[in-house]
Design brief:
Strand order of the largest sheet: 1-2-3-4-5-6-7
Distance between the termini: 74 Å
Number of helices: 28
Number of strands: 28
Strand content: 15-25%
Radius of gyration: 31 Å
Oligomer: single chain
Helix content: 40-55%
Length: 837
């Protein structure tokens, strides 16, 4: 089995493994030589992850003990497969638990797979040997090159890790394999090596290392490597070769077989090269160690480090590695020492704290308790803020583009240096999980560096020369508008808050930042970091308060622009206010909500769909404007997909966001909780409940929690607006009605995000061409847009554009000026007269 998404799937796969062992035990004579099975742990638990080790390790240990008991009783072998690098630590915990089991004493059939492309492979072997000696057990180790190489590269890039856990050049993996092989062969007193390879060079080297051919074996995949091993066995029948065969229905085997095809079909694969007549045998079997020695760089030049994937223009933000035990232990210790400053949170104007005003409580939504007080900005001091901002605009616009860009880059560095503190604030005040908070800080850093890069390109210091007639000079300039009011939401109290501000600053505007009233402490910390990075103190003010304070800022006659992220209704009110005022009409940049849909056809891979639906609908407790609200399932696969979604929801962990294994934290406040509960009551009337994630009585009584829930509803007309939280609405459709479905989605008027899952390119093309949204996601989650990679923003009721984190965003904060000069007015066109050949 592949990875289980539900406990039901995990039990089915477990029964299959158990049955396989019992079948082997009952038919020993039908199988030649040594026989046994390999077990993929992700197939036996839907949350086989490091962060969920407290749940999955004991459960998996119990299952493996039962399977190993059957294998030991019948003298069969059982090998634990190695999967993604992120799963190694819990795998080792389970393996050690099995070594300690007294009931398995004397059995030498327990094994584990080691992947040579993993840089830690030699150390992993040393650890396994240490444990084997500690518990006086002889174990098996299957050595393979590795099966998830491309996924490991992508994962490290997306998560912003310091380096790759795998080698980026194939010859380095080949060398690692032989180093590991030599180590295994030297330890045959405690190990039984099994070499999974179809590479003739590798086989020849191992035979040269261990010509006695004792205490080890080669393993080949069923249907592959026949020519190589048949040739060897004709020369010497004593060479031990076993067949490794995947068993199961095609729907379970397909992902496995695809990985095998990718590996063996790669240009660098021995299996691929050996059949190419245009490649000389000498080249195929050349000594790769000599190739490695002459390399100037041991890393692949086309695979930069995760920090450098965006080129010289900007650095990728660094993220926490949530699968690294050492890093997580250090982070958890730092978080345990963090304490919120209980003093009052104040506005900041001209670099000074504004201590006068009305005091209001700040609430931790996970506990529904007061964690501090915020001082609401006095409304009679609004004019003073704008007066300070006028001065700030003059100072900031006098700086060069390069100076402003360097300030943004320093802000990015300071945010990175204060990551743990910001995560703590975001978790405590906004109820975001640690993973979400880490992504928040990373996105804020990416905004700073991306807008610094774009600023250098767009705001050319002396203007951009335009193509002109001879004797004429035309220069195009972008300059700041003046004063921007930036109003940000509580659901992204760091990322969106920072992105709006630094974009406006890079364009040369002074900024008055008004964060959501629910997250003042986080906003205050970010502003302090920005001001410490060399930003002129007059150029950035923090004004704390409710919607009335925001309205006063927007209505002020000195406003030159407003950047707003929030509800569609609030955006319309701001737009009306700006349009009705006297004088010039200010710029409005608005990003609002969405009735975001995902369409899944019958060709889609169900497991991938379920992963992306769970993430899109329930990540961040559904409190993202990009969250999937409506899932359209083709009726042919609806039952199967719904059942898997229901099962996957049961494994979601709703709880205190400070706990690393929490999947879904609280809603932001009681008002949001009541609003969603009202909608859920209505759904009970016309919808059919699919599933609801578990919620403890303590969570129900204490915090602002709302259990993720999914309902099947008749059609889209039952939803009159966006419901902001972890509620998924599922609608069935017939394949012939796809155009009607697309029309219904477009007619909602929203146009933010949209997802489509299919393996038919013509279907994907048709859907993408006919959907009216800002961001389309194909075969992936609809949330988590990356700055500069997936510029984010909608159309229609979902926003005015341009897209945040996109190439046009800074221009919206600027005005355009063209300076045209007739250079012949001073006496003639010198450049034309002096023109040579």
């Amino acid at each position: 089995g592949e990875g289980a998404r539900t406990f039901e799937d995990a039990e089915r796969y477990f029964a299959n493994y158990k049955n396989a062992l019992e079948e082997l035990a009952a038919n020993k004579n039908a199988v030649s030589k040594k026989h046994g099975i390999s077990v993929k742990l992700s197939a036996l638990h839907p949350r086989f992850e490091y962060l969920h080790r407290e749940d999955c390790v004991p459960a998996l240990t119990e299952k493996l003990e039962l399977l190993c008991g059957i294998a030991a009783k019948n003298k069969l072998t059982l090998t634990i497969d190695s999967e993604e690098v992120a799963r190694i630590y819990p795998t080792l915990q389970i393996f050690e638990n099995l070594l300690q089991n007294a009931d398995l004493e004397g059995w030498q059939g327990l094994g584990m797979v080691v992947q040579a492309y993993h840089k830690a492979a030699p150390d992993l072997i040393n650890l396994l040997v240490k444990k084997a000696r500690q518990y006086d057990r002889k174990i098996q180790i299957r050595l393979v090159k590795g099966a998830y190489w491309d996924s490991e590269i992508k994962h490290a890039q997306i998560e912003g890790h310091k380096n790759y856990p795998v080698y980026t050049r194939k010859e380095n993996t080949d060398l690692s394999y032989l180093v590991c092989a030599q180590k295994l062969l030297e330890l045959r007193d405690i190990l039984y090596p099994m070499f999974g390879t179809h590479n003739a060079h590798t086989v020849a080297t191992i035979l040269d290392m261990a010509p006695d051919k004792k205490g080890y074996e080669f393993q080949k995949l069923y249907g592959m490597g026949d020519a190589l091993f048949n040739h060897l066995n004709k020369k010497d029948s004593s060479i031990p070769v076993c067949v490794y065969a995947p068993v199961g229905p095609h729907e379970d085997l397909l992902p496995y077989l695809v990985r095998r095809m990718l590996e063996n079909g790669a240009n660098s694969s021995f299996v691929n090269q050996i059949y190419k007549k245009d490649i000389a045998v000498e080249d195929i079997v050349q000594d790769f160690v000599s190739v490695i020695r002459i390399r100037e760089s041991h890393t692949h030049p086309k695979i930069p480090l995760p920090s450098n994937i965006y080129g010289a223009g900007r650095k990728n933000s660094e993220g926490l590695n949530f699968d690294d035990p050492t890093e997580m232990e250090s982070f958890a210790q730092n978080q345990s020492l963090m304490r919120l400053d209980k003093k009052k949170t104040t506005s900041i104007v001209n670099g000074k704290e504004v201590t006068k005003g009305t005091n209001e409580p700040t609430i931790n939504p996970a506990l529904n308790e007061n964690i501090g007080e915020v001082v609401t900005f006095p409304k009679d001091k609004i004019d003073d803020v704008f007066q300070t901002a006028e001065t700030g605009h003059k100072i900031l616009s006098a700086l060069t583009t390069e100076q402003r860009a360097k300030i943004l880059e320093k802000i990015a560095d300071q945010l990175e240096n204060n990551r743990d503190k910001l995560i703590h604030l975001c978790v405590t005040e906004a109820g975001r999980t640690v993973q979400d908070a880490d992504s928040e800080v990373r996105e804020a850093i990416d905004f700073c560096r991306y807008y610094a890069m774009r600023g250098r390109q767009d705001f050319v210091e002396k203007g951009r020369a335009l193509i002109s007639p001879t004797g004429e000079k035309n220069l195009y300039h972008l300059t700041g508008r003046g004063i921007f009011v930036c109003i940000s939401p509580w659901n992204f109290p760091i990322a969106i808050f920072t992105g709006q501000i630094v974009a406006a600053l890079m364009a040369g505007n002074a900024v008055i930042a008004k964060p959501a009233e629910q997250t003042p402490m986080t906003a205050h910390a970010v502003i302090k970091i920005m001001l410490s990075a060399g930003l002129p103190k007059q150029a950035l003010s923090l004004v704390l308060g409710d919607g009335d304070v925001g309205a006063m800022l927007v209505d002020h006659p000195k406003v030159d622009g407003v950047a707003f992220t929030g509800s569609t209704r609030a955006a319309k009110a701001i737009n009306k206010s700006l349009a009705d005022r006297e004088g010039a009409i200010p710029q409005l940049i608005a990003e609002t909500g969405g009735q975001n849909a995902m369409i899944v056809d019958s060709s889609a891979l169900t497991e991938q769909v379920v992963d992306d639906v769970i993430n899109s609908a329930f990540g961040s407790a559904g409190q993202r404007c990009s969250a999937c609200r409506v899932l359209f399932l083709q009726d042919d696969i609806a039952d199967q997909t719904i059942n898997m979604i229901a099962g996957a929801m049961q494994s979601l962990k709703v709880g205190d966001p400070k706990n690393l294994d929490t999947d879904v934290g609280p809603l932001i406040d009681e008002e949001s909780q009541m609003r969603l509960q009202h909608h859920k009551t209505k759904l009970d009337g016309y919808g059919q409940k699919i599933a609801q994630a578990p919620l403890t009585p303590e969570q129900k009584a204490k915090g602002c929690f709302f259990a993720p829930v999914a309902y099947e509803i008749p059609n889209l007309q039952y939803l009159d607006r966006e419901h902001f939280g972890p509620i998924l609405h599922v609608i069935r459709y017939a394949a012939k009605d796809i155009d009607t479905v697309l029309q219904e989605i477009n007619e909602t008027g929203y146009g933010l995000t949209f997802g489509v899952h299919s393996r038919i390119q013509s279907f994907i093309n048709h859907v993408v061409d006919h959907i009216n949204v800002g961001n389309v996601y194909v075969n992936k989650s609809t949330i988590g847009a990356v700055v500069g990679v997936q510029p984010f923003g909608g159309r229609g009721l979902s926003g005015t554009g341009p897209k945040a984190g996109g190439p046009q965003y800074l221009r919206a904060f600027a005005t355009e000026k063209v300076v045209s000069t007739d250079i012949t007015a001073s006496g003639g066109n010198t450049s034309l007269v002096m023109l040579g050949d």
